[in-house]
Amino acid sequence: MGEDLAIRFLRRAGYYVWQRNCVVGGGEIDIIAIKDHTLVFVEVKTRKDAFKYDPLYAVDDAKVKQLNKLADTFIEEHEPYLKRIRIRSYRFDIIGITLKGKYLYRKESLIHCEDAFTDASLSHRPGATYQAPHQDGNTKE
Questions:
Q1: How does pLDDT run across 47-59, given as a tens digit for each residue?
Q2: Domains in the chain with CATH codes
């Protein structure tokens, strides 16, 4: 459900969603998208309202290293095509989704953190794109 919401959000924001649940190099990349000649590797984290922490913080240093390795493998495997479509750069985004409800979940908030980390360093940038505030009135900072 979370990835469906993330894909819908990305498409509305002008991204071309190239692949979903891409298995590469012994792991999986949630979403691979393209926007403005930039290849975007997107990690989606979805949490229910029972969780009391921001879903963005579910991406730890180990996950960052894994995503870097997977992205390197993906780029290597698709290099001729990426050159042909003139991809100039790549980045890593995180989309954090919080769901609300007990049985029928609905989206409470979606946070898009562009360029969330580079290389093997984690640098969450809370200057993210907010789609909806939490019902309790708090915004993610």
A1: 876 455 677 777 8
A2: 2-130 (3.40.1350.10)
